[in-house]
Amino acid sequence: MRLDEFVAGFERDEAAERRRLAEEKSYEITNYLDDVEQQFKETVQGDSLFGSTAPEIFVGRSGYPNISTGVLSPMAPDADAADFATSGEWYQRGLGIDDVLQRRTGLLNSTRSAKVNVDDVWDGFVGTQREVAIADRPVDVEVGLDDASNLDIGLDDISTPTGPRARANSAELAENPHVPRSVEKTLEDDDWRAEGAMTYLYNRGFDVYEVNTILSAGAMGQNHERKLVPTRWSITAVDDTVGKYLRGGLLNRDTIDTTEVWYNEYMGNRYWVVLTPGRWEFELVEMKAPESVWNPVAESYYLSSASEGYEGRTGYVEETAGAYYASRLGVLEHLQERDRQAKCLVLREVTDEYWAPVGVWQVREGVRNAFEQDAGDASNPRLADQPAEAETFRDAVNAVAQQLPVSLNTLRRKSDMVAGLQSQITDF
């Protein structure tokens, strides 16, 4: 598809979008939270909780290396626990912000203080938590609760939201968990470094969601170094490790032949992905709208960026944090499938439709699925199964810039890749 035809399909009726946003921002979640509070009170009235728990845990980072660690269990007795675990399937099912918050706030986080050094701990609360994490399906557990509880909902930009917290004094398995043979292998090898175990599981079909849960439970790495890893850290660690592995396999590959522009939008986030011939290079630029979740009071867009060259990065990304590693992974997976390398610029516009944080998973899936659009509606460029093509990287950036909420000059000041283009008087 020609780039001018592709971009022409993105003309927006801003007034109509505002009306739609007003309708969607009904904040039905506030009504749902009233139900959560009632469920919470009923759940913690007794001294135990018995039920099926999602194969997912939560490990906090406050107070490290003495942290809070928890088992996540649906409070509704008839809930399908597997439906509460963070997954790329949420994108395929078209879940919105309300849907995600309802699922996650419906999980009781039964917590216990623990030291991060776990070595071979497989008994007590931490042992049960680790068994839940390595299982490939929900496990029945019985959790003993005390009177200490907190209805606060945990939200941040990396982790998926967590529900109310209750202090646990015990946790026991009510059944034997089913552990995949590949996971058993990583546990049995005491000399296997965590990075190798991560890529081993990824190559055997485990998605990063499953891998970061196992890592978070301290079930990877050399035995004497196995530790509980805060959930926020484990998500980024897995995205980064798998991304480096994929990048390493592409550095001697041929480059793509033409400049391509891909697009996707999800949960009020718009993603433009520009691939152009050349050795591997990557940059993420984020544009956060006023009144969006991470720029709530400003009157103008807030821009952040991070980048890497052919050899990768040597330090952690600060400005864009986990979004950088999640978006980079989506691009690298696409290039691996094509067995090609390329230079890549990802432009993420966070609109005011993104009114509550649901975690960095939506960035990962937003970029992953920019390359996996439905070919069933060729009249809609947003659903094209092929990208728009441009003559040059400059042409692609100039065309995409017309659809962005900031000027090309503003973008140039923040983006290393765009700054590398020679300025023209018409850019100002």
Poorly predicted ranges: 375-380, 424-428
Spatial order of the strands forming the largest sheet = 1-5-6-4-3-2
Q: So how many helices? A: 15
State the major sheet.
6 strands, mixed
Over the alpha carbons, how many angstroms does the gyration radius reach? Answer: 23 Å
Strand and helix order: HHHEEEHHEHEEHHHHEEEEHEHEHHH
Structural class: alpha+beta
Q: Give the amount of beta strand, in percent.
A: 15-25%
Q: How many strand elements?
A: 12
The helical percent reads 25-40%
Overall mean pLDDT: 86
Straight-line distance between termini? 28 Å
> How many domain units?
3
What does the overall shape look like? globular
3D structure, described in words:
The radius of gyration is 23 Å and the shape is globular. A 6-stranded mixed sheet has the order 1-5-6-4-3-2. A 6-stranded mixed sheet has the order 10-9-11-8-7-12. The longest helix has 18 residues, at 231-248. It folds into 3 domains: 29-173, no CATH class; 181-248, no CATH class; 251-427, no CATH class. Helix 8 packs antiparallel against helix 9, helix 10 runs parallel beside helix 11 and helix 11 runs parallel beside helix 12 (361-368). The chain starts with a helix and ends in a 9-residue tail after the last helix. Mean pLDDT is 86; it is low at 375-380 and 424-428. The chain is built from 15 helices and 12 strands. It has helices at residues 3-8, 14-24, 28-43, 89-92, 97-105, 124-134, 181-188, 194-203, 208-216, 231-248, 321-338, 361-368, 393-401, 408-414, 416-419; strands spanning 48-53, 57-59, 66-74, 107-115, 139-150, 165-173, 259-266, 269-276, 281-288, 302-308, 343-350, 388-390. This is DNA repair protein. Residues 21-295 form the Archaeal Nre N-terminal domain. Belongs to the Nre family. Involved in DNA damage repair.
